[in-house]
Amino acid sequence: MKAAVLHEYDEKLEKSEFVIYEDVPDPRIEGPNDVIVRIGGAGVCRTDLHVIEGLWRNNSDVQLPYIMGHENAGWVEEVGPGVTHFKPGDAVICHPLVTSGHCLACRRGNDMHAEESSFPGINANGGYAEYLRTGARSLIKLPKTLAPKDVAPYTDAGLTAYRACKKAAQHLLPGQYAVVIGVGGLGHIGVQVLKSLCAAKVIAVDRSKEALELAAKCGADELVLANGEQVDKVLALTGGWGAEAVIDFVGEGSAITEGLEMTRSDGAYYIVGYGGKLEIPTIDMITSEKRIIGNLVGTYPELVELMALADQGKVHLATAEYRLADANRALLDLHHGKIHGRAVLIP
């Protein structure tokens, strides 16, 4: 099969090509619950750029060369002898974690904290290819209203945004405020999730006017351009107190300090983006009683819930489609901020 393969790291992202489009062996059924999926769409994520930078080399045991791509959807091509609920031709979306389901975390539904797992695209070959091997336990059948290429990025970008915003929505009341910092690939989904799950007013913050325009289309109530005065603007919009929830999809640079400043006392700051460092005096935590909450990719049930919202037309993905052979162009466009929404590779 054809695949876009990462052969070496590029710590400064300076090369004109990050991956090589080449022939590789087809994945094969190795266990009774394995499933081969013919890829209909593979999302291009900023995490992929971090993988190329080598940021994940100490957090996964993957050996180069390997195939990235952890946001995948397509059609069942082949199933292992133990698979009974899927058949060739079924349209499916893949939860990003492949687990056995035996450990306590899995039995509680928290597969992302499984004692043993495979994460295609992170620590195993992923979906920047024509075919992907995954597990039956990770698959969700798609309704006829949703095509694989249109929903693939939901498996990480959408699911991570959904998990964080669902946590926030459970505590947000009508008349309260939620701030979304960074309304690009994840943030524009987060705005829609908040508007679907709660009645709080949503304030979108971004340095890109185009991203803010997208946030407005997604239902944001207020738009704040990050031009150095964003904290003051958010405080003014919230009566000087800050927001009850701040969801930070940037997680680096000044966004962290600003996000905490935008969070009111007894409010919650949700970290989704990463790459920066969080520093706060303990006395400030005590006197403000702010909560700082980390967010990993969501659970299988949460992906089912997100697909229900998509099926109902309450959440939409803004996507830019690229051929699998043009993976380098998609990665470079993402790196240079040319993609508003999510990029999807199509074999």
How would you characterize the overall build of this protein?
- The structure is a single chain.
- The protein is an alpha/beta fold.
- It folds into two domains: 2-156 and 297-346, Medium-chain alcohol dehydrogenases, catalytic domain (Quinone Oxidoreductase, Chain A, domain 1), CATH 3.90.180.10; 158-294, Rossmann fold (3-Layer(aba) Sandwich).
- The chain contains eleven helices and 18 strands.
- The chain has helices spanning 46-53, 104-107, 148-151, 157-169, 187-197, 209-217, 230-237, 255-262, 282-288, 300-311, 327-335; strands at 2-6, 19-23, 34-44, 66-67, 72-79, 91-94, 98-99, 117-118, 131-135, 139-141, 177-181, 201-206, 222-225, 243-248, 263-271, 291-294, 319-323, 342-346.
- Strands 3, 5, 6, 9, 10, 17 and 18 form a seven-stranded mixed β-sheet that branches. A six-stranded parallel β-sheet has the order 13-12-11-14-15-16, sandwiched between helices. A three-stranded antiparallel β-sheet has the order 2-1-4, with no helix packed on it.
- The mean pLDDT is 95.
| Contiguous runs where pLDDT drops below 50 for at least 5 residues | none
Number of strands: 18
Question: What's the CATH architecture name of the largest domain?
Answer: Alpha-Beta Complex
Straight-line N-to-C gap: 10 Å
Q: What is the N-to-C order of secondary-structure elements (H for helix, E for strand)?
A: EEEHEEEEHEEEHHEHEHEHEHEHEHEHE
Largest sheet: 7 strands, mixed
Structural class: alpha/beta
Rounded mean pLDDT is: 95
Oligomer: single chain
What would the principal axes of the Cα set say about the shape?
Answer: globular
Give the count of helical stretches. Answer: 11
